[in-house]
Amino acid sequence: MSISFSGMDSKLESTKMEIHVPLTNQFIQLANALEWRSIQSIVIEDIKKTTNKLKWWLGRKLEIRIHLAVFILQLILKTTDREMERAIKYNALYQVFCGKTIVEKWHCPDHTKIEEFRNRISPETSQKIVSYVANLAVKNGFADPSKMDVDSTVQEANMAYPSDAHLLVKLAMMAKKVINYLQKKRTKISDLTEGIYVDVKAVKKIAKDYFFMAKNVSKEVKQKAFKKLYQAVEKEVTSVIGICASVKEDISKKLPWYIRRTVKQIQEHAKKYLEDVYYFIENQTMKTGKILSFHLKDVACIMKGKLGKTMEFGRIFQLGRIAGNFFIALPSSEVRQEDRASILLMVEEHENIFGEGILKSLGTDKGYYSKENKINLQKKIEELGIQIPCNVREQHIIDQKLKDRRAGIEPLIGHIKDFGLRKSKMKSDKATLSSGYRSILGFNLHQFMRYLTNPKLKLSTQY
């Protein structure tokens, strides 16, 4: 073996390089396959909405082709905003995908603008783009909408386990943060805060005694300790709740965003939450509609009987997988989209996307079964594979191939979760819902690229 020492003593200098980007590249093929005008027509109404006092058509122009490409590229690569900006600046292929050779005044968007554009796109629009990509796959022969399997999954919310002891301590900390700020900064209501002090240390000490009680302590002793914690928190925060209630909109606008957010949470939730906790202490049953988080409203306790996941806190997504392994998503009308109530809506959504009379075969698990659902679906679908629970006497033979096909949706949902449908990182209900749809969109785009770059990949091998 010979050795070359070329370049060992040389220093790097500023230089220019030409990089050949072939049409066969997967990103170039995807950019050419997507109908950018169609995507633009879907998102344009959201883009026109602005919080600026000026009209949307005034000011510097937004290069929508660049931002849409960055939005799609980020979903595929699963990167943060800063990583996305850095990748585009130093990767010529990504620059071409984002329109450098076709947009007149091309530039790489700043990471703050990437976030701003993404946040403008509503959850409803994200769901429509998911349907668009699935429909585009059908047009290109990558998917067959005559077959569909339906299943649901839970997207966990970005919140801690909602134990009342934890939420009571958090409420005391929120009250202290607000009162400390109002006492330091002179406002119209500062006079009301004189002499008020929230003793969080005392609350935490009581909470610590409750948290670390011995396991063999009787139920009555635990209830007494929890009631003591509740009384301590109620005593500390009652006056702060009254002060926050007197904060009007003109005062609220002058507060920093983090104080304004905390004041709003106390105004909306604190009084009702304390009443619900008191109801639990007196009756030992949770009141219907009790809040589970101070910063999220659209959260439900979901029990699917999974091993290791007795309770999940978040929202349910209803997913339909068509032949070719592309997904459509049911628009989220409520947090807890029950399986039984969603199957007919999912079939209607399929008809809205692909047309009536297209769906010939449908597979679901036993969670979607009801006699009414079966009767209604048999009128529309030739091959119905809705599985029947064991406690139902009705006999219905389902072809094993149909059962196996439906079971194939489970690992694919796992792949969608890898695109962001696991525990959400978003801090608002709207952003959480949008991130769920974007996860499905990212998976669909990834599947679309696989078909584009592998001509030998037949539809039959993917279903």
Write a concise keyword list for the protein shown above.
single chain, alpha/beta, globular, 6-stranded mixed β-sheet, 463 residues, 17 helices
- Helix coverage percent: 40-55%
Kindly estimate the percentage of residues that lie in beta strands according to DSSP. Answer: 5-15%
Structural class: alpha/beta
Q: Average pLDDT across residues? A: 90
Major beta sheet, specifics? 6 strands, mixed
End-to-end distance: 50 Å
Name the helix and strand elements from N-terminus to C-terminus, one letter apiece. HHHHHHHEHHHHHEEEHEHEHHH
Please report the total strand number as a whole number: 6
Q: Which descriptor suits the 3D outline?
A: globular
Which regions contain 5 or more consecutive residues with pLDDT less than 50? none
The number of helical runs is: 17
What Rg is obtained from the alpha carbons, in whole angstroms? 28 Å
In short:
This protein is of the alpha/beta class and 463 residues long. It is built from 17 helices and six strands.
What does this structure look like?
- The chain has helices at 26-33, 36-48, 64-77, 81-90, 92-97, 111-120, 123-139, 164-184, 200-211, 219-245, 249-252, 257-283, 339-354, 371-378, 400-407, 409-421, 429-453; strands at residues 144-156, 300-302, 312-323, 326-329, 361-364, 383-386.
- Strands 1, 2, 3, 4, 5 and 6 form a six-stranded mixed β-sheet that branches.
- It is 52% helix and 9% strand.
- It is globular and about 70 Å long.
- It has 463 residues and is an alpha/beta fold.
- It is built from 17 helices and six strands.
- The longest helix is centred in the middle third of the chain and has 27 residues, at 219-245.
- The two termini are 50 Å apart.
